[in-house]
Amino acid sequence: MAVQDFLIASLVLSCLAASSYGTSFSSLPATLIVSASTKQGQVLKAGEDKITVTWSLNTSLQNGTDSAYKTVKLKLCYAPVSQKDRGWRKTEDDLEKDKTCQHKIVAQPYSPSNNNFTWTVQKDVPTATYFVRAYVHNSADEEVAYGQTTDVHKTTNLFKIQAISGRHVSLDIASVCFSAFSIVSLFGFFYLEKRKSKSSQQN
């Protein structure tokens, strides 16, 4: 009886362990060919520049490979150089915990070919080095495959995005004008006070 209890407990723990770990990136096949309009080392400005992403199924694969494919989700992902010493961007094999690809570009129904999307870099994208990854999802919205614009080591075809600084020329001009007005007002105040003082002394 004790042996049976032990086996049941072991089985339950195994199931719990399996269920607590989501889809692993290492288990996904790289079945999509993905490319972007960016060039190695190119610097894009957030809120201004655009990226055109093209993707398709690798034609060398066996027929029926994509039978369960339903949706493709494109994401902007941090390159290793922009993950160093930044735990909030850390790569994890468990996709539920992975922080590599935090910026959604678009989600579209799956099609094996002739896919492209032009995306304007969003204003909230931080300064960093990036690549683009496409995740393929099944009808249960589970990741089943992927493709990316870089190699497996994430060292090629990387591009940079320069975030918005938050300062604008119009604001700078307004700031200068306000400062000048403040200085003039201060001198004017002292001048009037001095005249009042002299006037009271003469009286």
TrEMBL record:
Pfam families cross-referenced by the UniProt entry: NAR2 (PF16974)
Annotated signal peptide: 1-17
TM region positions: 173-192
Keyword Ribosomal protein assigned: no
Top-level division of the source organism's lineage: Eukaryota
Keyword field: Cell membrane, Membrane, Nitrate assimilation, Signal, Transmembrane, Transmembrane helix
InterPro entries per UniProt: Transptr_NO3_Nar2
Function as written in the Swiss-Prot or TrEMBL entry: Involved in nitrate transport.
Record-stated family: Belongs to the NAR2 family.
The protein's name in its UniProt record: High-affinity nitrate transporter
Organism: Rehmannia glutinosa
